[in-house]
Amino acid sequence: IDQSATLAGHEESRAYMNVLEASFNEKSENSLSKNIAGFWGSWHELSNSTISTAGRTDVYERGVQLSRQVNDLNDDLSNIEFDLTREIHAATEQINSISESIATLNQEIRGLEFNSPANDQRDARNFLVTKLAELLDVKSFEQDSGEIVVYTAGGYQLVNGDDSFKLSSAGQNIMWEGSDGNVADITDKIKSGNIGGWLKMRDEVVAKYKTELNLMTKEMVWQVNKQHSQGVGLQFLPKAVTGTYSTDTD
Question: pTM of the predicted model, to two decimals?
Fold first, then answer.
């Protein structure tokens, strides 16, 4: 079961890493790094001839191209986040359905095995436990009655005898719902299975890319505005400019 969960998590992470790499596509001629280099290169060329109309046009056009690319990348990352969250929502519903089916099979096995082994029901139950393990990391053990208990990492029960317990994921987190109304956030405890892979991609990998893209963009905006604030246009102002200006704490 552990190996199934680990393998499933790695496969889902790899699939979405491929999507992420395709968005950035650093091997192409239109990659982000090459466009950044071209943008700064156009500034360098303009510094050699600051009144060049062609140089100014090149800076402007490369700036527009770069800003569009950054916006597109940010949208791509947000779309990947949305897709991952949607996958997680669907998987929690599937887990709830499987847990209910295992609880039903537990009840059937307990009733049938007074007379003879319930082999068909046991095979079906084993299959469902394997399916659960593909979705998230679970453990199970069999009781003397022939029923099994299934629980998630952290010890939260999904199945105990003929009782099953639900997961919910209305927001970003995955919640376990007990029969007595208790609710626990188990997001950080899920490390493998499909959901573990999706959580790692959404909350660690994609979040890191978005943060770094945002920081890079802010720094570029700051540096470009800094350069503009130190210069003038092609024509000087016809008269002196006076006034009072203030800035915020930033």
Answer: 0.81
Give the integer Cα–Cα distance in Å for 156 and 150: 9
Query: For 58-77, what is the mean pLDDT?
Result: 94
Among residues 170, 169, 165, the alpha carbon closest in space to that of 155 is found at 165
From residue 100, alpha-carbon distances to 80, 92, 93, 96, 158 in Å are: 31, 12, 11, 6, 9
Distance CA 124, CA 159 (A): 15
CA distance 126 to 164: 16
Question: What does the DSSP 8-state code read for residue 233?
Answer: -
* Residues 6 or more apart whose Cβ sits within 8 Å of residue 9: 191, 192, 193, 194, 196, 197, 200
The sheet with strand 183-185 has its strands ordered as 166-168, 175-177, 183-185
Taking only the tens place, the pLDDT of each residue in 141-192 is 999 889 999 999 889 999 999 999 999 987 889 999 988 888 999 999 998 8
Residues of 154-190 as b/e, b for ≥16 C-beta within 10 angstroms? eebbbbbeeebbbbebeeeebbbeeeeeeeeebbebb
Best CA proximity match to 32, nearest among 216, 158, 167: 216
- How far is Cα 104 from Cα 47, in angstroms, rounded to an integer? 76
CA-CA distance, 148 to 155, in Å (whole number)?
14
Are 167 and 176 in contact by the 8 Å Cβ rule? The answer is yes
- Amino acid at the residue 241: V
